[in-house]
Structures are given as structure tokens and as C-alpha cells.
Amino acid sequence: MRSSFALIATAGLVAVALTGCTAPAPAPEASTGGSSELIEATGEFGSAPKVDFPTPLMPSETECTEIIEGEGPLLTEGQMALVGLAVYNGATGDELQVTGFGDEDAVPLTVSDTTLPGLKKGLTCAREGSRVAVVVPEKDGFGPNGNQSIGIAPGDSLVLVLDVQQAFPSRADGAVRLSRDGFPAVVLAPDGRPGITVPKNDPPEQTEVEVLKEGSGEVVESGDTVVVQYTGVLWDDNSVFDSSWENGSPVTFTVSEGEDAQVIPGFSKAIIGQTVGSQVGVIVSPEDGYGDQANAKIPAGSTLFFVVDILGVL
């Protein structure tokens, strides 16, 4: 799904809820400027654009201009979007990569610190349906050493054109449902990050699922690739062994009742049949987890507990 530049970008180079007053939407992390306004990107949204700009474009700060206006709120911290991405050397005008348009799989990018700083700032200027032109100076790009492998010399800027084809929420937005007594307690931080308290009693012998928030989106079916946020803890000591929240980005994987699943059986059982927008808690028995094999921070024979926000289906 991701080709060379996109991989570099996303690698760091290119229940019970506690709620208070709704905070105002954050402002974009970049604004339009003299450089970004010089970028022309013509053609239909979703198709590879014809891009033209004078060289060199060398802004002191990252700039962005919305060429095609999208709908809905601007992307904010923690959101994943599927985009078409066209990348150019802003100093020379050379095309570096054009990917995710037309029949190609769109590129998943997240508004987070795991994304190239200038690209992250550009995403905050966009919304679903937007075509955005972004100019990124050296300091928000590949730094003083550049990246010779993709054609960026020290001091060069980047020009990016993004078509945001689909945007996913950063957290489950379904209606809150109360869980039964004896089920792990889940408390949500303002950004949706779950805090989990596992009860002191012995875990059930079989996998059990509770809907903590009930969404109204499409139903997840076996074989679907889903976009989720999750946190997993050990039942024995309540310690976190894995969390997409801590890793800085939602994740995608295929859930299945068969051998093509990319996750443990208990995870698939928790998600298949649920609706997008839901948050589920699942107690995963060893049989539906890692069994008698240890795995990283997970001892052999462990019962696990996950909180999973189902954000979308690809």
C-alpha cells in the first residue's frame, strides 16, 4: 500500500468516559503564504494532478493552500487519512514520487509525530475531499543533511500535493453503554485514550466481549481490513503490553475467522459483527490469544484484555 517516499514519511521522516466542555477545534499548524499560493495543481480530485510551480520555492516556514475545498472539520492530532500524494523537490522542481491516485491504493498518513513534520502540518490544513498544496522548508523536511536517496540535497525544500480521499476519526464516537459488574473498568482521557483497571478476581475461562460504545457505522465482516485504536493489558498485573495510542498512530489489519487473519483469534472475535464507531472491551482467553507460547511482554498462558476503538473499514 505504501511506496518508498510514503514509508519514509510515516516512519518519522515523510465504557465510562470522563468528559468536560467541548474544546474549540485546533487551528491548522500551517497557513497559506506566498510560496504555497504559487503552486498550481490541476485535474480531477483523486486523479494524479498536473503540478506546476516556479523554482526555487524556499519558504522559512511550512505553508499550505487548499486548492480544492473539502467538507467537514480539518484533520487533527491522531487522525488517519487515506491520501493521494505527489512529491516534488521545491528547489529544482524535480518530481520525486506520485502515488495513491486513480486505481492505486491510497496512502495512509496520520496527523502525529510519527509523520514528517512538514507533512503533519500540511495535513492539519486539509479535510476529507481537500486538495492541498504544501511547501516544506528544510527544517520541517529532511533536515540539514537532506536525503540523497530520493533526490533531496541539503537546503532543499519539498512541495507536496495531497488529495484527502478518506478521513477517519481519532476515537470511537458511538453511544456509551454500561458494562456489567466484574468487567474491567475503562476510563477515557479527553483525547479518547483508555485507562484500564482489571478486577482482582480470576478471569473467565472463555473469551468475553462487551460493547462499551455502540457505533452507527457499517458492520465489520470477516475478511475486512479495519482501522482501529487499541490498548492491551495483562489480566494478571494490569500492565500495558501494547497500545496504538502509545505508538502514535491508529493501525490497520485484516480480521478473519479463518487463517488469513493478521491478529490473534480473540481480537477478530471482538471486532467481527461490530459496527464502525464502536468501542469494545474483550477479555481474551489464552486459547484465543498466544496459548502456551510467550510473546514479547506477554508470558505464556496469559489472559489479555483489550479496549478497541473501531474507526473504519477500508
Low-confidence sequence ranges: 1-22
With helices defined by DSSP (H or I, 4 residues minimum), what is the helix count? 4
Proportion of residues in β-strands: 25-35%
pLDDT averaged over residues: 90
Report how far apart the termini are.
12 Å
Q: Evaluate the radius of gyration.
A: 21 Å
Described by strand count, sense and barrel closure, the largest sheet is:
7 strands, antiparallel
Q: Total strand count, please?
A: 18
Decide which structural class fits the backbone: mainly beta
Helix and strand pattern: HEEEEEEEHEEEEEEEEHEHEE
Q: Give the % helix.
A: under 10%
Shape annotation: elongated
Topology:
Layout: H1 4-10, E1 16-17, E2 40-42, E3 50-52, E4 63-68, E5 80-89, E6 95-99, E7 107-110, H2 117-123, E8 131-136, E9 158-167, E10 175-176, E11 185-188, E12 194-197, E13 208-214, E14 225-234, E15 240-243, H3 244-247, E16 251-254, H4 265-271, E17 279-284, E18 304-313
Parallel strand pairs: 1-11
Antiparallel strand pairs: 2-3, 4-8, 5-6, 5-7, 5-9, 8-9, 10-13, 11-12, 13-17, 14-15, 14-16, 14-18, 17-18
